Amino acid sequence: MAHELITRLHISGMGVIDDAQMSFSPGLTVITGETGAGKTMVLTGFSLLAGGKADSSLVRRGEAEAVVEGNWLIPANSDAVISRLTEAGAPPDLEDDGAELIIMRSVPVEGRGRTVACGRSVPRSVLQEVAADLLAIHGQADQWLLRSSDQQREMLDSYAGGPCTDTLLEYRTLFAEWRQARADLESLTSNRAERERELGLLEAGIAEIDAVAPELGEDEALDIQSARLTNASSLHEDIAAAHDSLVGTDIDAGALHQVGLAQKSLDRAAAVDPTLGILRAQLAQVSALLADAGAELASALVDLEADPARAAWVEERRAALRKLMRSYGPSLAEVIEWREAAERRIEALGGGEDRAGEIRLAIAGLAAELQSIATRLTYIRTSAAHELGSQVSEELRSLAMPDAELIIEVQSTSQLERFTPSGADAIAFLLKPHSGAEAQPVTKAASGGELSRVMLALEVTMAGRNSVPTFIFDEVDAGIGGRTAVEVGRRLARLARQAQVIVVTHLPQVAAFADRHLVVTKSSDGLVTESSVQDVSGNERVVELVRMLSGLEESDAGLAHAEELLAVAATERAR
């Protein structure tokens, strides 16, 4: 399966580096050069690309800023990296076989620097997230895996493999259910007074509405009645006048009489001209309508008789309805809807105690099951911790730490309140640097070079189980030489079978195992430029190994030793 690989690193304006770039390939790449040639700036560059803190002191004197740029090949199946970049608004341009990821970081003398991924500005935190899936940096100041308890736990779980992964997934699913159930119970019990207050308000509201017993549309009907009763006198006069105009009085004939006369006239005319029969029929309809309207007006006059008691009742009823609408809704329909919703809410609140009892039973069952799974997870981790510690300790004996012992401590708690999404265990990597010494946290018990060797031993032991595709080591060979240095080189080569490995080294025994060898040299003016980083092979590589061995490029003894180292390394790679 293809892995993410860094292919190029470009640094300018940083420390002794004026402008230099170097290319990388799969396998083991070593970077060598004389002291002060700027080799450690390579590690600094990687650290910046991984989201490390920037310091203006890195900027070369006379330059406005230092810039570092890295290129990675990202396979199309690199879901974690691609999703993180996409979420940050910097999606890589994917092809069928993947994409090229370019990350750039600038460090100015003054002001804020730039952080760019895929041509777009991103927060520094995005680089930290992406770098977690791209590379692991192991230098004296970058032993983050050994400083983070979470990373130590993740490393142990990764070593434990499938049984641990499956159990942890089962645990986390149950832990989420248990925590949610506790939150639900807390919500029910802590809000009891609030629920009781709400119940009281709802019941009081329903009682107030029921006392009035409003009916849908009643307010509009009462408004009409109120207007009629209030204006009864003027309405009586107007309706009576309309009635008299239609029906007539003792003095004046009404419209109904006049229409009757018109009908008689048309009867005579229709006898002569039959076509006038249509008009006569229309007048008959008008006469009927006028008669009906007169009867309705007469009935309306009877209904308009003054009724002070009815008027008072209507106004009281309207006032009661308006009070409800002020409290429970701007319309009578919404008042009625509020009452229906209140009944439903009361029913829901009334089941609170029953619900709390159900949740308590569920919590008890979840807690017992959670304890069981946590115990199983602790057992898996404890077994893996003993095995991993033994294997790493065995590796350390071959890395100039003959009496060192790595102890991976798994401390578990039975108190559910102290459980975390990762289990009931606290993981600590402890180191006994020599027999009789007290085991202490690795970062306190080991020197910088020893820390790098502990990390190398861990990575070699974890080879094939760690998802990080690129490892970068600086000063992993500090304080060692001879046969131990050969063992360091051999283990780096073994690790490089599983991942891309980049090592800054000053030991020829390590450099001899490289698949690719880069040499950094300073020019006469003390600068490192692009031409000062050379990819050496063949005789040029032998010359560099001789220089590293004896300091003399034409030493016969150094030449023999260099060829011997290359032969040993070739045999190791052939295995």
Overview of this structure, please?
- With 575 residues, the chain is an alpha/beta fold.
- It has a domain at 196-350.
- 57% of the residues lie in helices and 16% in strands.
- It is built from 20 helices and 16 strands.
- The protein has helices spanning 39-49, 79-87, 124-134, 144-147, 149-160, 162-190, 192-212, 218-230, 232-247, 255-272, 277-303, 308-328, 332-350, 352-397, 442-445, 448-462, 482-495, 508-511, 538-550, 556-574, and strands at residues 5-14, 17-23, 28-33, 65-74, 99-108, 115-117, 120-121, 135-138, 405-412, 425-432, 440-441, 470-474, 500-504, 516-520, 528-529, 533-536.
- The protein has a seven-stranded mixed sheet.
- Helix 7 (192-212) packs antiparallel against helix 13 (332-350).
- The chain starts with a strand and ends with a helix.
- The model has no long low-confidence stretch (mean pLDDT 83).
Record the SSE blueprint.
Elements (H helix, E strand, L loop, with lengths): L4 E10 L2 E7 L4 E6 L5 H11 L15 E10 L4 H9 L11 E10 L6 E3 L2 E2 L2 H11 E4 L5 H4 L1 H12 L1 H29 L1 H21 L5 H13 L1 H16 L7 H18 L4 H27 L4 H21 L3 H19 L1 H46 L7 E8 L12 E8 L7 E2 H4 L2 H15 L7 E5 L7 H14 L4 E5 L3 H4 L4 E5 L7 E2 L3 E4 L1 H13 L5 H19 L1
Parallel strand pairs: 2-15, 3-13, 3-14, 8-12, 12-13
Antiparallel strand pairs: 1-2, 1-4, 4-5, 5-6, 6-7, 9-10, 10-11, 14-16
Helix pairs in contact: 2-3, 5-14, 6-14, 7-12, 7-13, 8-12, 9-11, 10-11, 12-13, 14-16, 16-17, 17-20, 19-20
